[in-house]
Design brief:
Chain B: GO terms for molecular function: tRNA (adenine(58)-N1)-methyltransferase activity. The complex is a heterodimer of chains A (about 475) and B (about 400). With about 475 residues, chain A is α/β, with parallel strands linked by helices. Helix content of chain A is about 40%, strand content about 15%. Chain A contains 16 helices and 15 strands. In chain A, helix 4 runs antiparallel to helix 6 (about 200-210) and helix 14 (about 395-410) crosses helix 15 (about 455-465). Chain A is globular. Chain A starts with 13 loop residues before the first strand and ends with a helix. The model of chain A is unreliable at about 265-320 and about 455-480 (pLDDT under 50). Chain B starts with 12 loop residues before the first helix and ends with a strand. Chain B folds into 4 domains: about 1-95, no CATH class; about 110-165, Vcp-like ATPase, Chain A, domain 2 (Roll); about 170-325 and about 390-400, Rossmann fold; about 330-385, no CATH class. With about 400 residues, chain B is an alpha+beta fold. Helices cover about 25% and strands about 25% of the residues of chain B. Classes of the chains: A alpha/beta (about 475), B alpha+beta (about 400). The interface between A and B is large, with 79 and 83 residues. Strand 13 of chain A pairs antiparallel with strand 14 (about 320-340) of chain B.
């Protein structure tokens, strides 16, 4: 196992930085500047510590494990009862901007700055106890720079992606992803088909739940699968042994029996690389445009940049021995390329063979494409009595997909749903729902496959008309000719 | 569940009403599920020997030892169970709940799907028969050896689908001994507790085992569930179900009070789940059950007062990342809706209103949208008239390094 809790941070690991409720995925490398929440630091000192350790950022960007400090309870337990005499004259804070800056530049601990701010606030003592609490919390958040380094998980990465880059994952909210994993009965030993354009987040979630047991066939559009988020999980290498990929553009030929690996472009791998790289770059540009107000431009939204991803992926995709050869001569490179291509072809054949068995244990779709054609084709590869789940950011395509699936037959228990997520503030005498909640996290269409009967097409029209009736009624109607 | 009918050989619908109404006091917080249970009326009739004495409800969901007319001691109910099984000695071949199988085998728990949201579980046994509203299903000929997902024609000519069991289908069909957690909550619990194959989980109470099955599914084949239930009969029932479902090697059921005696394990769990009336009393035990290097905890409570006390206890015991949330499911019915076009006094020949139709290309079947009658049709996802507005608050937290 990759050692869950209690594992130590090692160089080269994929880790996640956490400050309050903000996450950021990074790869742990020595002498590498990290910018997170307007702070910069190096991770060198974190290496060797256990995951879950909280660090303080000190001057010069080094990390120090945070000592458990007794909360310096504000000795004066004075507090007002209401705010009738508190006037907002903008003069309550005696420290000026420059004073605060000076304190910071001196390298004074955030905790002490907060204490100074409290002492120099003329209204603090008149504030109610609750308001004092709130004030301290706010200042702490601003001046006390502590970060926790945690091990990546679906919980953390899906929360992170939804908050930081919802566009890259089609606004798939984490609770919706959780529903998909459950509705899809994802577990060890499954043979799953996954079609996603969520940066590899959904794939990673499925891989985590399968724990390296069973197999996954990832269907990809374009030149190759995108697995930027997948690589953030830091899965052990064996998890990739039974991960296959198959190009979406070959699905039709596979279904009609005309598929052959020979018909593929001469150098599929090269195409894949080019396409992915350009993908990555354009995405990068997009997000940096969006996030200019939030963060300084030099900071890449996800610390793992595309070229690096490539590296990690290559390592995963091939044996490490090949990597050493890379530095050698051109001739070697050509040979290596041929080997790669041969391997790729071999993997493709394997994936095709797996699909041809048409006995997959489930189908997960979460993409930017219209779900209907994907479902109508990909369900062919799924065994009967298996769940399938389709995600879409919008409801309307799923309504259509529902209708078409009913016409097609071979599916039961179709359900179009959405989940609402509400977060709460729970404090003594101050509990209430959080002020803002997510407007939407997408929609799901789920169902179960059944044996598809021959000649279903004939009755499809009449069924479409009767669709609105409860199915039990339809059963009775159709019972008669049986 | 596998209980001989009290008195009459054939149970009437009214009997079910009676039996379940006795339980309403227990599950008063959620009356809706009680209602749902009433609609299930599958009866399992055993072919061999005297039919009359071998009638049992598959889902006497509301069975409730305290209030039922003739409470069964655990040993008694066990005896009944054995007697029930004795005619056909079977052996479990597959671990159906954690591993897919292609064909239906003797001893499997299968789901009979009748139609829209109407289904029930059936224990597949040679020689057994199951009664449905479409007629009888004979297990030996109609089920065993067939592929899961097949359409099975019943004696009256109607048909049903036979489905492979999954924790989700089980949740929808299991015999209720308590109020249960449904898949919407279960899914977020599983993800937020970071469960995966190999995880060690502690749970209390076991209740009806709805969450337990989902947890076992997720942590299999190398993980383990330690579940604690203070109600002896419920604990015994759960053990029995785990055995029948071929997952007993993945779960340990302990019959004790988690608030007093804890989970019976220490420093081994990756996650703890609490669904008990006073979770704050079990936070200390939860902490000691979790691994020294940390882990995740979740507590489910219907009332905010419970949540508050739990959060205070969590803070006291040094848990961090305390976060309370609520998740609600919204299901949409797909319907074709037609809206009438108002008559604003325009001449009948006026074709200007065709604009309505061209803006509605999704409906090929009736391209003109019944303009003569003045309606426009479209497909829509319509929310149900009534939905579950609250199940419980879920409070998550992390036990971090000391």
């Amino acid at each position: 196992m990759e050692g869950g809790a209690g594992a130590r941070i090692r160089e080269g690991d994929c880790a996640v930085l956490k400050r309050d409720e903000v996450f950021k995925a990074v790869s742990v490398l020595r002498r590498r500047k990290i910018i997170f929440e307007k702070q910069w630091f190096y991770l060198d000192n974190a290496i060797g510590h256990i995951y879950g350790t909280t660090f303080e950022v000190t001057s010069g960007g080094t990390l120090q494990p945070k000592q458990e400090v007794e909360e310096t309870t504000t000795e004066t337990k004075e507090a007002g009862t209401d705010n009738r005499n508190i006037v907002d004259d903008g003069k309550s804070q005696k420290l000026t901007h420059d004073d605060i800056k000076a304190l910071k530049d001196k390298g004074i601990k955030g905790q002490e700055i907060v204490q100074q701010l409290i002492e120099n606030s003329t209204t603090f003592r008149d504030k109610t106890e609750f308001a004092q609490d709130k004030y301290i919390k706010k200042k702490k958040k601003k001046y006390e720079a502590v970060i926790t380094i945690v091990k990546p998980s679906t919980r953390i990465l899906s929360t992170m992606y939804y908050a930081r880059e919802p566009g890259k994952i089609n606004h798939l909210r984490y609770d919706t992803l959780a529903q998909m994993l459950t509705l899809g009965n994802i577990h060890a030993g499954n043979k799953m088909i996954v079609m996603e354009t969520c940066a590899g987040l959904v794939l990673g979630a499925v891989m985590e739940r399968m724990g390296g047991y069973g197999s996954i066939i990832q269907m990809y559009p374009g030149g190759g699968p995108v697995r930027a988020a997948t690589s953030c999980f830091g899965f052990p290498k064996p998890f990739f042994d039974n991960l296959h990929e198959f190009p979406l553009s070959k699905v039709q030929s596979l279904l009609s029996g005309t598929f052959s690996t020979e018909a593929l472009p001469a150098d599929p791998e090269e195409n894949a690389l080019v396409e992915e790289e350009s993908n990555g770059l354009s995405e990068e540009k997009q997000t940096s445009l969006q996030e200019t107000e939030e963060e300084p431009a030099p900071e890449a939204p996800m610390e793992i940049n595309p070229t690096e991803e490539q590296d990690t992926m290559d390592i995963n995709a091939e044996d490490v021995e090949f990597k050493e050869n890379k530095e050698k001569e051109n001739k070697e490179n050509v040979r290596e390329k041929q080997i790669k291509q041969w391997e790729r072809r071999k993997k493709l054949k394997e994936a095709a063979a797996l699909l041809r068995e048409k006995n997959a244990d489930g189908l997960i779709v979460a993409s930017k494409f219209h779900p209907t054609p994907l479902l109508l084709s990909l369900l062919e590869f799924v065994a009967p009595s298996r769940p399938f789940v389709v995600y879409c950011q919008y409801k309307e395509p799923l309504v259509e997909c529902y209708t078409r699936l009913r016409e097609r037959g071979g599916v039961i228990n179709l359900k179009l749903s959405e989940t609402w997520l509400r977060n709460y503030q729970v404090l003594p005498d101050r509990s209430h729902p959080k002020l803002t909640m997510s407007g939407g996290g997408g929609y799901l269409l789920s169902g179960i496959t059944v044996v598809l009967e021959k000649g279903k097409c004939d009755s499809s029209n009449s069924e479409a008309l009767k669709m609105e009736e409860p199915s039990s009624k339809r059963c009775k109607l159709q019972d008669l000719p049986c | 569940m596998w209980r001989p009918a009290p008195g009459s050989p054939v149970l009437q619908r009214e009997d079910l009403h009676l039996a379940s109404s006795t339980c309403e006091t227990v599950g008063s917080f959620y009356t809706k599920s009680t209602f749902i249970l009433l609609s299930k009326q599958s009866v399992l009739i055993h072919e061999s020997a005297d039919l009359s004495s071998r009638v049992a409800f598959l889902d006497m969901s509301c069975e409730c030892p305290e209030t039922s007319p003739e409470p069964l001691s655990p040993s008694q109910s066990f005896q009944h169970h054995d007697q029930w099984q004795s005619p056909a000695k079977y052996k479990l071949v597959t671990m159906s709940f954690v591993e897919y199988g292609d064909t239906i085998k003797d001893g499997d728990t299968a789901i009979v799907f009748l139609g829209h949201e109407s289904m029930f579980p059936v224990k597949v046994q040679h020689g057994s028969m199951t009664q449905t509203k479409y007629g009888v299903i004979r297990h030996s000929t109609d089920l065993i050896g067939k592929k899961y997902g097949s359409k099975v024609t019943c004696s009256k000519g109607g048909w049903v689908f036979i489905l492979h069991p999954t924790p989700e289908l089980w949740t929808m069909n299991l015999p209720h001994r308590t109020q249960i957690l449904y898949s919407t909550d279960i899914s977020i619990i599983t993800m937020m507790l970071e469960l995966k194959p190999g995880s060690i989980v502690c749970e209390s109470g076991t209740g009806s085992g709805s969450l337990s099955h989902a947890l076992i599914r997720t942590v299999a084949p190398t993980g383990h569930l330690y579940t604690v239930e203070f109600h002896q009969q419920r604990a015994e029932k759960a053990r029995e179900e785990f055995r029948e479902h071929g997952v007993e090697h993945l779960v340990t059921v302990t019959n004790q009070d988690v608030c007093k005696n804890g989970f019976g394990v220490s420093n081994i769990a990756d996650a703890v789940f609490l669904d008990i009336p006073s979770p704050w009393e079990a936070i200390g035990h939860a902490k000691s059950a979790l691994k020294a290097e940390g882990g995740r905890i979740c507590s489910f409570s219907p009332c905010i007062e419970q949540v508050q006390r739990t959060c205070l206890a969590m803070e006291e015991y040094g848990f961090t990342e305390i976060n309370t949330l609520e998740i609600l499911l919204r299901v949409y019915n797909v319907r074709t809706v037609s809206l009438q076009i108002p008559d604003l006094g325009k001449a009948a020949e006026d074709n200007s209103s065709t604009g309505f139709d061209s803006s509605n290309p999704s409906h090929q079947e009736s391209p003109c949208g019944n303009l003569q009658q003045g309606t426009v049709q479209f497909k829509s996802g319509v929310p149900l008239r009534e939905v579950v507005g609250h199940t419980g608050y879920l409070t998550f937290a992390t036990k971090s390094l000391v």
